[in-house]
Specification:
- The complex is a heterodimer of chains A (544) and B (96).
- Chain A is an alpha+beta fold.
- Chain A has 4 domains: 6-109, Sulfite Reductase Hemoprotein, domain 2 (Alpha-Beta Complex); 127-291, Sulfite Reductase Hemoprotein, domain 1 (2-Layer Sandwich); 313-393, Alpha-Beta Plaits, CATH 3.30.70; 408-543, Sulfite Reductase Hemoprotein, domain 1 (2-Layer Sandwich), CATH 3.30.413.10.
- Helices cover 36% and strands 17% of the residues of chain A.
- In chain A, the strands form 4 sheets. Chain A has a 5-stranded antiparallel beta sheet.
- The radius of gyration of chain A is 23 Å and the shape is globular.
- In chain A, 54% of the residues are buried.
- Chain B is an alpha+beta fold and 96 residues long.
- Chain B has a 5-stranded antiparallel beta sheet with strand order 3-2-1-4-5, with helices on one face.
- In chain B, strand 1 and strand 2 form a beta hairpin.
- Chain B has 2 helices and 5 strands; from the N terminus they run βββαββα.
- The chains are: A alpha+beta (544), B alpha+beta (96).
- Chains A and B meet through helix 13 of A and helix 2 of B.
């Protein structure tokens, strides 16, 4: 994986010292909160419902054992013994003291990590496929491109004060595991008919209060022009995106109001202009970066056979492992969704253990997924049983990947100052209602996503089943929606009708799964059945 | 009644105005600021005891002063899903 050069390290170190001074001035009363707030947000430090919250960037969700250990150290030393992995492939700490924040950033910098651009109206952490570099179905490893975009977007002077925040995802397979088309820019690496590498660009996707699927604006951008094309997309947005109304300031609104065709015309015009400026695309830098993403030293004699006589191990293998491109290896998913647990939370001890297991079994690599789980990307199949036993001992082996209990849930009103309703208790109750793993497997792939407010951090628009918590005259109320997807079959969920209270929403979820079990045909997932039979049978079960 | 709340500048802890120059982690200690809320907050923000402060509508109950809105009750109680991290698990949250 990528290692900082002298410029990367110098930038991060300088930022730590700058923030240390800013924090000192704030505590000394030399800065007001109004003056300090934008400075702390530039370093990922929010003031949330109960305390300061620090969001640490994990570029494209990739980290090594030493970095993961540092995340555990921060949870233990500066927080309350745990961290929360997020839908942006980052980690958040909920109980940070302002006076500790500079020391935390200094500790992070020792392992090439930071919290820069995890907030504010700038280009945020680049996200990607959590199976990048390991998946059997990928065209190429998207991470060098994600890293190139990270470097390009870090402290980019032109894009530090955009109309609104900006999120980019890069994938390189037809299966979309990164909700790519629900990003401001979604990039899919592809090959053209001549076999040359390039990228499809999708611009103007997003969730939030106005969910939109990003339209394709270019089917092939040559690889060496990818950064320039992204820059052209940003330039048009920066010039014409609305700054008068934050609810209409995302690029999706601009693309929608201009129309994809007109937006594309303007991007192409800007792109053509940029080519005349003589700014060479950073091909040499890409080559340097790519060197960091070579395959690890796989054992070419590793065998594909697995002993699955232990029935619990068999269930975990079937559900939580994914095909690897290398014979004799598997991608192992660690679910952070135990029954009754808090989706995405991991204790400091669990974080440490996952770091140790990555070192022992996965060439020192881990990934964070947008579904709030952890991945060990390169595990020899002959090591899977030992790995599973150690995960199970630590409560890290729920065999529920992509099942109903593998929910995405935002922190909700239990932690977030923007939330209108609690998400986590609903997730816990649904998890308990469907605790039986046999029942979950009977339901098959079912993506359930819960947001505690209209900002949709819990991706409810993209849930096969989505739940949105709202405030109805001071009381929590939950709207149910069906039919969304963040995958390659991307779609936006539709609301079923009037909302439910906290217990009612759990019953409602059960009712719609009963309709699915009753009406499905062979091989249909929940979302397939919904798409075939429509909303009516579900509404009938819910409201008649 | 009107309570005053905000976050401790250094630690970020949720705190409640308890009269004079005193702030408490416990809403039970909160005092009614009456119509003086804005003036008290201006003074206390300047003294750097509290950050991001504001006035909260509340009522007196048999458990002491209680914010009316669920969000403020969650702030007063701590996360409802981590009783080990809660300040006060007696604060009613649901159906208020």
């Amino acid at each position: 994986m990528y290692e900082y050069d002298q410029y990367d390290q110098a930038m991060v170190d300088a930022r730590v010292e700058e923030f240390r001074d800013q924090t000192r001035r704030r505590l000394a009363g030399e800065l007001t909160e109004d003056q300090f707030k934008p400075l702390r947000l530039m370093n990922g430090l929010y003031l949330q419902l109960h305390a300061y919250m620090l969001r640490v960037a994990i570029p494209y969700g990739t980290l090594n054992s030493e970095q993961m250990k540092m995340l555990g150290h921060i949870a233990r030393k500066y927080d309350r013994g745990y961290g929360h992995f997020t839908t942006r492939q980052n980690i958040q700490y909920n109980w940070i003291k302002l006076e500790d924040a500079p020391d935390i950033l200094a500790d992070l910098a020792t392992v090439e990590m930071h919290a820069i651009q995890t907030s504010g109206n700038c280009i945020r952490n680049i996200s990607s496929d959590q199976f990048a570099g390991a998946a059997a179905d990928e065209l190429t490893d998207p991470r060098p491109w994600a890293e190139l975009l990270r470097q390009w977007s870090s402290f980019h002077p032109e894009f530090s004060y955009l109309p609104r925040k900006f999120k980019i995802a890069v994938i390189a397979s037809d299966e979309d595991r990164a909700a790519m088309r629900l990003h401001d820019i979604g990039i899919q690496l592809v090959r053209n008919d001549a076999g040359e590498l390039g990228a499809k660009f999708f611009v103007g996707g997003g969730m939030g209060r106005t969910p939109m699927i990003g339209p394709e604006i270019r089917d092939f951008v040559p690889a060496d022009e990818l950064i320039h094309y992204a820059e052209a997309c940003l330039r048009v947005y920066n010039r014409y995106g609305r700054r008068d109304n934050k609810y209409k300031a995302r690029i999706k609104i601009l693309v929608h109001e201009l129309g994809a065709e007109e937006y594309t015309r303007q991007v192409e015009e800007e792109f053509a202009h940029m080519k005349t400026l003589g700014l060479n695309p950073p091909v040499a830098e890409l080559a340097r970066i790519t060197e960091f993403f070579q395959d690890p030293a796989y054992d070419s004699r590793a065998r594909d056979e697995l002993d699955l006589t232990d029935p619990d191990f068999r269930i975990w293998v079937e559900q939580n492992t994914h095909p690897h491109k290398q014979t004799g290896y598997a991608i192992a998913n660690i679910s952070l969704k135990p029954t009754g647990g808090i989706p995405g939370d991991a204790s400091a001890d669990q974080i440490d253990l996952m770091a140790d297991l990555a070192k022992e079994y996965s060439f020192d690599e881990l990934r964070v997924t947008h579904a709030q789980n952890i991945v060990l990307p390169h595990v020899k199949k002959s090591d899977l049983y030992a790995l599973w036993q150690k995960l199970d001992e630590a409560g890290l082996a729920p065999p529920n990947l992509d099942l109903i209990s593998d929910m995405i849930a935002c922190p909700g009103l239990d932690y977030c100052s923007l939330a209108n309703a609690r998400s986590i208790p609903v997730a816990q109750k649904i998890g308990e209602r469907f605790a039986d793993i046999g029942r979950q497997k009977e339901l098959g792939e079912l993506k359930l996503k819960i947001s505690g407010c209209i900002n949709a951090c819990g991706h409810h628009h993209a849930g096969h089943i989505g739940i949105l918590g709202v405030d109805r005259k001071g009381v929590e109320n939950y709207q149910l929606s069906l039919g969304g997807s963040g995958a390659e079959d991307v779609s936006l969920a539709k609301i079923t009708g009037p909302g439910f209270d906290e217990d009612g929403i759990v019953d409602a979820v059960e009712k719609v799964t009963d309709v699915y079990l009753r009406d499905r045909t062979n091989g249909e997932r929940f979302v397939d059945t919904y798409r075939r039979i429509g909303m009516a049978p579900f509404k009938e079960a819910l409201y008649d | 009644m009107n309570l005053l709340t905000g976050n401790d500048l250094k630690t970020g802890d949720v705190i409640w105005w308890a009269g004079g120059q005193n702030w408490s982690l416990h809403v039970a200690d909160a005092q009614d600021a009456g119509d003086e809320g804005e003036a008290i907050l201006a003074r206390e923000e300047k003294a750097r005891r509290v950050n991001a402060s504001y006035i909260v509508a509340a009522e007196m109950t048999d458990k002491g002063p209680m914010p009316l809105h669920i969000k403020e009750r969650v702030r007063a109680s701590g996360p409802t899903v981590r009783s080990d991290l809660a300040i006060n698990t007696d604060i009613p949250i649901v159906g208020v």
